[in-house]
């Protein structure tokens, strides 16, 4: 590769970050390193920026079991209860127990569907609470969860007021049933319903009710509330309130400050991260590896690279060794800085100190390099990752496909797209969006429409981003009839209102 041959011209600049890592390693004990792999999920209902969400890897890479096992409540529920359609490992469970578990979840789903049908009839001449009583159903946490999720996933701009009332009516009814009391998870779902319905005062009342009942306010509580704050002034007041809450807990963290710092990272409140860290020091709490990782991401996003480097050195002086996430941050910085030789040295250094590079590390690096326009380096590391025992997943393929689409190299993108399917990786909504955009950019509108059909035939439902991409390019090309046809199909499938409302909710956060 040319960049390897010519790399020595700028070798001093390229070695800047690995040099910091060496200093940290020399001053830190090598006792234990985190090797857990992070899972990046691409939610098909989300609305991302122009070419998908790969820019947000630094934020998402903290979404790992060792840090936030309590945050993804839906995942926890699936794994603990074995929801139908979920791949779970049940260890030593016998087949009869598995069948009972599956039967329980199926019964809860069936009862939830009946309850939703009754709630939808609520109005003059029909008492939904009486209808729920007549069901004579055993109210369980799973049953309540399915009903609230059914309401939450169907909220749109037109029905938000009605659905907020419907959700709260069910919430109060179920909370009064014998031998049942709402969990933190139930409160969070109801809070989210209020948040998406823009009933913010009602949402805050639920927070107060949780505190009065002695239920812990967790990072999930914080995330729901902070996402509705809007302006930074209100966000700071919210943070101050949570700092003072004695009931604010989050089990993987040493103290609530890390939970708050992580939560602020997920909603991109980088300046608030700096402020919370200062409050943390004032109250006598020492930072740990996670604290430094979050701070470094915030400093980098704010363009404060000198402070980024100082934090890395301070981390070593305080006896903390970089973990897998720290190295992922460094690879992101090197990738976006177009420093492939330094990144290669860092990957080798990781191997030397016992930290195995994962598909996430390579994906992060390839994403950064593609944004820097170094596609030769992207190809090199995409091939090189197999030597480290890493196989590219759907996210990695999506990143490299997107990189070549952005560069206008549609043929190469198509080659990677075909390769991923041959190797058993199913394209997701972001992969398809990139391909549809690339085909439209090349004026291949017929192929783009066929790509949309292929997407649906594989069970991948188009989201607002995909439809908007196709319609926008068709309109800009003067193909109004084709654009209107796409909109007609979209409306026929009943997705138009739902998708627009989801787009608005995303923009609010």
UniProtKB/TrEMBL annotation:
Keywords: Repeat, Signal. PROSITE patterns: PPR. One of its GO terms (molecular function) is mRNA binding. Pfam families: PPR, PPR_2, PPR_3. PPR repeats lie at residues 183-217, 288-322, 323-357, 358-392, 393-427, 428-462, 463-497. Residues 1-18 form the signal peptide. InterPro entries: PPR_rpt (IPR002885), TPR-like_helical_dom_sf (IPR011990). PANTHER family: PENTATRICOPEPTIDE REPEAT-CONTAINING PROTEIN 4, MITOCHONDRIAL-RELATED (PTHR47938:SF35), RESPIRATORY COMPLEX I CHAPERONE (CIA84), PUTATIVE (AFU_ORTHOLOGUE AFUA_2G06020)-RELATED (PTHR47938). Belongs to the PPR family. P subfamily. This is Pentatricopeptide repeat-containing protein. It comes from Heracleum sosnowskyi. The lineage of its organism: Eukaryota, Viridiplantae, Streptophyta, Embryophyta, Tracheophyta.
